[in-house]
Amino acid sequence: MSIPKEPRQLMINIMYLVLTALLALNVSAEVFNAFKIVDKGLIKSNKALDQSNEGMIEGIKDAAKTKASLATYAERIEPIRNESKQLTNYLQGIVDEMIEDKDADGNVTGGYIEDPTTGLQKLKKEKDYGVTTRILVMDPQGNPGKGEEIKSKLLEFRESMMKYVDKEDQTGFAREIAVQIDDDTWKQKDKASWSHMNFDHMPLQAVVPIFSKYINDVKATESAALNYLAGKVGSGGATVVLDKYQVVSAPKKSYIIKGEKYEADLFLSASAGGDSNTGIRISVNGKNLPLNSDGQASYSTVANSNGEKSYKATASLTDPVTGETKSFTKTFSYEVGERSVAVSASKMNVFYIGVDNPIEVSAAGVASSEVKVSMSGAGGGKVKPDGKGGYIVNVSSPTKNGEFANINVTAPGLQDKKQFRVKRIPNPVPKLSGKRGGSMPNGQFKAQLGINPDLEGFDFDARCTIAGFRLVRVAKRQDAEPADNPGGKFKGAAAALIKKAKPSDKYFFENIKCKCPGDKAARDLGTMVFNVK
């Protein structure tokens, strides 16, 4: 791959390399934020490319009118633009399909939601890798996804662009085509296909910038083709004049923490070919900035207070054709916030003994590796990472009035604590065939195998067991028949009493005992009474 000379394309390539490197890392909140920043930068670049490509068309057509032999180059404009637009719409359509996502009944399950931390819109399924795998690689029924079709369309577009270039210029033009497909690495890594290597089990937020890069490559290839046409008609005596420009800011972070530096690269985007570095001057709030060899200026300032900040950037250059100096001004903004942490229970604001209690810890402006979580206070608890970005709390004793289990969070410059009560798992409800008592048909009653303890409305994965109970059968005009039963399943004498059931018999399940996770002694669940009918 050749190194592009244009600052814009060099910046995009570097951003894509950064994205690729981030994909190899553990996907933390900071990495997801990086994906969003890269995608925003690519979208801005795509808009700049559209403006640049649009600005070249009339110049090519006007220059082609100077000679009859140049008319063929003007005729190639619309086919090039149509193919680029069709492929761009196709790629954007797949992005929209993944973001929206629908279930088997056609109901939308994706889209956007408000980020509770920033108040901004974010993808509802940003961490979901099922939607990308299903649409791009393979669905649950084993049908292939659209990944290989995407690969084919990109290759077809690359080959198609070559036909708009004169045969003697094709070798040089091939090096300018941004659309590239790596069709060797997946074979060397023993992957099932190109699609598996690029999209299998990839989070949605990571895949969206990849598609923005594909769209950027298509638009950049369109730009290369139009530049080629401009060069051909220009060699006939016409000159393509730079007449549309835009100041571009590429911030390293659009949301920073108080005390950090705000850093951004500023450069001038031209809508046609030429030496865009000639006579360029860039200033911020009236202060001139030095330019590097790529015609870019770097601006930085320290954030000393919170809130939205802005600065005015002005770029001036002398048109190499007319000698006229033009200036272009634009205001850019960024947000400054504080570091903060928040602790929340994933299910309830209570810890239960004997089960895993999940909690979530978020720290704005702090790397996850710098966040330390510990536990103190009552409850005899321990906290450990769950391997998925959250934490699991285990406790051993209930808190009394005025006592709490404390979750402590520390990070550079931050410290927070949240209090939780600790309780035993609530008493389960003993049931026979799903009923707490009452009437039951004779046949159904005899078919029962034992008592089941039901933790009604309890959200945690916990299972209680019946330790034992006393069964008493009371038949008409007969003495009561008692039997003690160990465990919840009917055994021995108790099982025999169940088999003797007849209509109008009454059965008492007394002194029902059970044990739940974390219990040191059995609990008393009371009595059940059933009338056999």
Summarize the model shown.
The chain is α+β, with helices and mostly antiparallel strands and 533 residues long. Helix content is 31%, strand content 29%.
Low-confidence stretches at least 5 residues in length (pLDDT < 50)?
A: 235-241, 271-277
Name the average pLDDT. 81
Compute the number of structural domains: 4
**If helices are DSSP runs of H or I spanning 4 or more residues, what is the number of helices?**
12
Main β-sheet description? 6 strands, mixed
Whole-number radius of gyration?
A: 35 Å
Strand content is 25-35%
Taken from the alpha-carbon principal axes, the silhouette is elongated
Number of strands: 26
Oligomer: single chain
Cα separation of the termini: 84 Å
The percent range for helix content is: 25-40%
Assign the structural class, choosing from mainly alpha, mainly beta, alpha/beta, alpha+beta, or little secondary structure: alpha+beta
What do these coordinates show?
This protein has 533 residues and is an alpha+beta fold. The chain has 4 domains: 234 residues, no CATH class; 97 residues, S-adenosyl-L-methionine-dependent methyltransferases (Single Sheet), CATH 2.20.130.20; 83 residues, Sandwich (Immunoglobulin-like); 104 residues, no CATH class. The radius of gyration is 35 Å and the shape is elongated. The chain is built from 12 helices and 26 strands. About 3% of the residues have low confidence. The strands form 7 sheets. Strands 20, 22, 23, 24, 25 and 26 form a 6-stranded mixed beta sheet that branches. The chain has a 5-stranded mixed beta sheet with strand order 4-10-9-6-7, with no helix packed on it. 31% of the residues lie in helices and 29% in strands. Helix 2 packs parallel to helix 10.
